[in-house]
Design goal:
Keywords: Ubl conjugation pathway. One of its GO terms (cellular component) is VCP-NPL4-UFD1 AAA ATPase complex. InterPro entries: Ufd1-like (IPR004854), Ufd1-like_Nn (IPR042299), UFD1_N1 (IPR055417), UFD1_N2 (IPR055418). The strands form 3 sheets. This protein has a 6-stranded mixed β-sheet. Among the domains are: about 90 residues, Barwin-like endoglucanases; about 80 residues, Roll (Vcp-like ATPase, Chain A, domain 2), CATH 3.10.330. It is α/β, with parallel strands linked by helices. The protein has 7 helices and 12 strands. The protein is rod-shaped.
Length: about 325
């Protein structure tokens, strides 16, 4: 302790730990059914006074447990408006703790690390039928303060309730829970419990989403093949034979390969192509050449002005 702290009293008292027992009741009994799809509880005003004296820091987080069933979870506080000795709790939270109305619940103050990553697994594939399930989840989590690993929780959207499971959290910690208040957290999804990816064994390991926690919605299913991916790969011999077959079968363009008709009505000699697109030597000529042009055609070269000239009078 410094001299200034000793003289002026600027010493912050060490925080104690809140630890009390309450009779638990369902949130519907409180008349605030809108809090059923959330992760916060109601406590009496006297609990606030005790927390203030203990110098509990915000956000106020709690560990709730059923000592008889050895079940525990974590939650936040919505408000201090319950009757004395009563704790109002969402029904899904009571089910996780195996609690019934008027059972005793132990509530202790706690601190949890801010979450960095969480993987959520929907119970039903119907959750994925929502146009934007990630946005719906992010909006619903505003009613929560904590998430506990391996715990089921409930959110509500369009008057429908969806059960979700916390599969993985980061950072890992002894409490197996994280705080999601005022923190940027990456959300990923595991395949729904009723999907084929979740039910089919894959080498003894549990199917997991293929994403890296960057916030995208990704699943463990194999990518769908796009046209042509399923074709058989060709070997070297097959490719050569296929190429030769394609050369034989595919028609080629032959420039000036037709038989011309002269003005006098007689059939003319088809000229050879000058651009290297002439038919293969194995192909037979389609027309009969005159004796004057046979020598030039046998050589395979174009001979300019070698044919016998004819006048229009002939």
């Amino acid at each position: 302790m410094s001299m200034n702290e000793f003289m002026f009293g600027h010493v912050q008292a060490p925080a104690g730990r809140f630890n009390q027992k309450f009779n638990v009741l369902s949130m519907n009994i409180s008349g605030k059914s809108g809090l059923e799809a959330g992760g916060k509880i109601l406590l009496p005003p006297s609990a606030l006074n005790t927390l203030s004296r203990l110098n509990i820091q915000y956000p106020m987080l709690f560990e709730i447990s059923n000592q008889q069933k050895h079940r525990s979870s974590h939650c936040g506080i919505q408000e201090f408006s319950a009757e004395e000795g009563v704790c109002y709790m969402p029904k899904w939270m009571m089910e996780n703790l195996h609690l019934k109305d008027n059972d005793i619940v132990d509530i202790k103050s706690t601190s949890l690390p801010s979450g960095q990553f969480v993987k959520i697994q929907p119970h039903s594939s119907s959750f994925l039928d929502i146009s934007n399930p990630k946005a719906v989840l992010e909006n619903a989590l505003r009613k929560f303060a904590t998430l506990t690993k391996s715990e089921d929780f409930v959110i509500e959207y369009n008057k429908n309730k969806y059960y979700l499971k916390v599969v993985e959290i980061k950072p890992h910690n002894p409490s197996n829970a994280i705080s999601i208040i005022e923190t940027d957290i990456s959300v990923d999804f595991a395949p729904p419990l009723d999907s084929k990816e979740a039910t089919q064994p894959s080498g003894g390991s549990t199917p997991q989403a293929s994403g890296n926690g960057s916030g995208g919605i990704t699943f463990g299913s194999q990518p769908i093949g796009i046209g042509g991916n399923d074709k058989k790969k060709k070997t070297g011999d097959d490719s050569d034979s296929d190429e030769s077959d394609s050369d034989d079968d595919e028609p080629k363009f032959k420039a000036f390969g037709g038989a011309g008709t002269r003005l006098d009505g007689k059939v003319g000699t088809p000229p050879k192509s000058m651009m290297g697109t002439s038919p293969k030597p194995s192909s037979s000529p389609s027309t009969t050449s005159t004796s004057t042009t046979s020598s030039s055609s046998s050589s395979g070269k174009f001979a300019a002005f070698q044919g016998k000239g004819r006048s229009l009078k002939d």
